[in-house]
Amino acid sequence: MNAVILMTALPPSLGHKYLLDFSARFLAEADPRGLVYVILCSRDREPFTGAERMEALREATAEGGGNLRFINHHGEEPQEPGDHPDFWEHWKEIIFRYVPREENGFVIASDLYGADIARALGWEFVPCNSYREVMDISATRIRQDPIRHFDQIVSPFQKLVKLTVTLFGAESTGKTTMSKGLAASMNGYYVPEWAREYMEVLKTTTVSDRLLQRVVEAQHASERAVDGYAGKPFVFRDTDLLSTIGYYRIWGRTEPHRLRELFAGSKADLYLLMNDGIPFTPDPIRLGGDRRESGTAFWQNLLDEFGCAYHVVQNTYRERQEEEATTVVRSAFLGRLRGLDRFVRGPSPGAAGTAGSR
After folding, report:
1. Residue 13: phi, psi to the nearest 5?
2. Phi-psi region of 169 (alpha: psi -120 to 50; beta: other; left: phi over 0)
């Protein structure tokens, strides 16, 4: 016997993952030879394609989901029984385009529409998490506040929308304070400047070719390590490898080709270029002594040269800078959602087309 699941998964959530994990294990017990056919329904007006959502769920269930078969059914299908004179028969025929016609099988769902589908197919309905006692997750709630509920999205889909932000610019412009503050206030990961940590721990300000090589390797390692973490919508970097390219030039050295290659593969989604109109604060590890070695124009030219998306912070007061940066970062993140936060599915049936959206 086989089983069928209908869903839209917009966006794919841990609730969808639980439904799929349960179904794979249930069918393995009920009929080890059977398959779970996961039909993900998509339409043109939706902000993410069915293929994107399906691949995220496939990756999220790769371990232990060997009997899952994913299918993307794309089309403007009727969403409620009143939309079609023979609504359930219509959906029965859609299902049997992809699923073998058998006398017995299972329809697995978290919502009661599953019982209607099962009756149409002549199969058995198996409810899963109907009372949301295992996973109280709603795709509608996620869409309404994707930053707050970001951890409820499956991690492969998080990678599509997570925003990496680098605080950038001249020395003593508040990059460290701002990146830490934004990470704390916006629920993001923080990536420190490795060169600062190295110089502070070893109590040295000596710059050598060997140290610059270590800065490249260690900065890249720390960035990539955090990039693999899930659960938070933002990564805030206190500078990155483009800053290293800048300092190679400031110190009269030619940046190695390898550095350019590493940067090309790790470029941030957004750069916040800090304002050098604030007073300089001396620091023992700053090599410029009692003055800045560079200005905003130098770093802005670098951003333009490497085709980076950036915002030049206009304010010079700390609180206003953070307000400005927060607004810019939030807007950039919502832009990556392609309107998901404003998307309304319409009435939820009864209708197969919104199955599993919760």
Report:
1. -120, 175
2. left
| Cα–Cα distance measured from residue 94 to residue 121, given in angstroms and rounded to the nearest whole number | 11
Same fold across 2-145+344-354 and 150-336 = yes
Per-residue confidence (pLDDT) for residue 65, from 0 to 100: 82
- Contact residues for 327 (Cβ-Cβ < 8 A; gap 6+): none
* Annotated domain spans of the chain: 2-145+344-354, 150-336
Fold of 2-145+344-354: Rossmann fold (3.40.50)
Q: What phi and psi, each to the nearest 5 degrees, are found at residue 196?
A: -65, -45
Q: What per-residue confidence (pLDDT) applies to 280?
A: 59
pLDDT (0 to 100) of residue 355: 37
Q: Could you tell me which CATH class the domain 150-336 is placed in?
A: alpha beta
DSSP 268-295: -SEEEE--TTSPP---TT-TTTTS-S--
Dihedral, 72, 75, 80, 82 alpha carbons, nearest 10: -150
* HSE (side-chain half, CA atoms, 13 Å) at 237: 29
- What residues contact residue 68 under an 8 Å CB cut-off, 6+ apart? 20, 23, 24, 35, 36, 38, 58, 61
Determine the longest span between alpha carbons in the chain, in angstroms: 83
Which parts of the chain have pLDDT scores under 70?
280-292, 346-358
C-alpha–C-alpha distance, residues 286 and 276, integer Å: 15
Residue 170's nearest CA partner among 11, 282, 280, 50 is: 280
pLDDT of residue 352: 34
* Whether 262 contacts 302, CB under 8 Å: no
Q: What is the pLDDT at residue 190? A: 97
The answer to whether the beta carbons of residues 176 and 190 sit under 8 Å apart is no
Nearest alpha-carbon partner for 107 in 43, 41, 19: 19
CA distance linking residue 333 with residue 158, whole number of Å: 12
pLDDT at residue 253, rounded to an integer:
87
For residue 348, what pLDDT is reported?
38
| d(C-alpha 137, C-alpha 67), whole Å | 25
